[in-house]
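Follow-up to my earlier ticket, as requested here are the two runs.
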Amino acid sequence: MNIDTRNKILSVVLGVVILALSWWLYDSIVTPYKIVEERQAETERVRARMLSLKDALVQYEAKFGHFPPTDGGLDSIVTYLQTDSLMVAMGDTLFQQIPPLTYSPESIILAPRSGERFSYTLNDTLRPPLYLLEDPDSDDLIGSLSRTTMRNAPNWN
């Protein structure tokens, strides 16, 4: 084998190695970044749904003068959203979801990550009554059972 042939073979082999290492480096940077972006988008969808449920609770309180009870409270919200004429007419506008999620009265009480219900607890022993709305899949919550200043306030701001 003469020196020119050997140099050509080495150049081709090194070119392939450089391309493979470049792809590996690109993939090791981009793949974790995409995972982080997907996780952040999922968090935003969960928080948007929780805010929609909070808005539904506020609308419920404005209509009936009290929040729904702890037991069956989320079912009361679903019934309210399905039967109240204003909520039926304006529900999809008032409670817009971040795609690919869509609004429906039945799905507004479900956490998008796991499909479990949000946790809702009412403390009606204080004035004004306070509620706590929790995501079962994270530490996100809205409201407080003891702090009036946290009424209707999310903990992620």
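Run two:
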Amino acid sequence: MELADTYSRIPHDLSGSMSKNRFRQELFWGISKMFDLLDRENFCIVFDYKCDIEIHLSNSIEFYQIKTHKVQSPYKFTALKKIDGKQSIIAKLYLLKDASSPDVPIKCALVSNAFFQIGKTPKADVETFCFTDLDDTSQKTIMKALQNELKRSNVDLNNLHYIYTSMNLLYPQNDLKGKIIGSFEKIKGCEPIKPNALYRLIVDTVEERACYELSAFNYDELVKRKGITKSELDNMLDRHMEKADDSVEQVRVLIDQRQLTIREKGKLKAALAKIVELEYSAKELQQSEKKISGYIKEIATDVTIEQMADILLQQFGSRFSIEYSQEEKYVFLLLIIKRWEGGKYA
């Protein structure tokens, strides 16, 4: 009781927890958005760089600012135009449109779990709308606020949107798990194996990209460090399909059957475990797997597994970055050979 009494006299500070929760809400909404985009030919979602969530399509960019409302009340425009720090929320979002061009239009949107309100009545009849859809009086109010704050006479409300999301932004993990599993079944036509592992994989990968704090040298660097592409997401989903991919177990058996010392077998099995873990996130390995599996299709395959591994090691061994040991390269090639045998690349 003495400890509890002493501790209770110290004031608490929940600002850190609140910041972490806001960050998590942004990530979860972005992950949910990724699954909405899977019918697109290609996309990249960038987390927390120039805006909370960015969607880069082939010829357009979309910026999304996430704002959570804890109370059951509408999100009033007076809060949006309030200058807190250097700029108001609406002005900061609006300025992202300045780089827009006819070739690359930019869409900006505020996302909230509360309905928008300007004037006396909340706009509760639609989930998504452009500010140009509002009545003339409301548009004039918004334009005047932006003109005053940004000191510019021309303000264009096109491509400036408000999105009401029914996703539970306060406790989004359950909604997100349901969406991942539902989307998986719709896209892949089967239930995911180890759905909790798939959920953790996606969340951990997105969190890693969002937490990267350094500036990108160029656009490719940005996509690599801060983005998730459609092909990367698809790759994560493919690894959780019901189809049997027992290549890891086959390689493990292969290592056991080889005439090696206990130490050598231990090193190869450790390398195998590391490679299997890295395959989910390492783009270098994912790209190498495509190249190597394509190469196997082009060459004669009437050789043993060991001979094929030697051929591939000679052809691709020097192309791996220095972080990969010889053992890791070797077991990675064995995995590809076993997957090729199993018809994965047919």
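The only thing I checked on run two: The chain has a mean pLDDT of 87. Let me know what else you need.
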